[in-house]
Write the structure tokens for this entry.
Amino acid sequence: MKVRLMEALGIAACSLLLAVPMLAAAMPAKNSTAPSHTVQAVRSVWPPETLTGTILQVVPAERLVIVAGPAGVPFDMVVNRSTRIEAGNQRLTLDQVRSKLTDRVNVRFVPEGSGDIAQTIQIMG
């Protein structure tokens, strides 16, 4: 009987020793001026890639340039504020690219879960 009582007390003591640090870690620190949560910038896990192909379609309302790759497979390229679109030394807007359908392009992009984000679109003509 004494052995079982000692085992039960030992188990209870070990449980308390494990529970106290876990409870303390789950509680916010007192007198802390730091916010309870932090937001970290999400970075792409994929390196930038380059695609050479031809412009199939431009959809300004969706900020998309659809490019046919070497095998004819279409790639939707998302154009954002930081995307540089150039033809020679001239910078172009997305609306101006609509007049360049079937032109050859080099697109440097970053694959993301939300789509391929174009960094540069170089129109070669």
User: Anything to note?
Assistant: The first strand starts at residue 49 and ends at 59. The chain has a mean pLDDT of 81. Residues 84 and 120 are 5 Å apart (CA to CA). The radius of gyration is 29 Å.
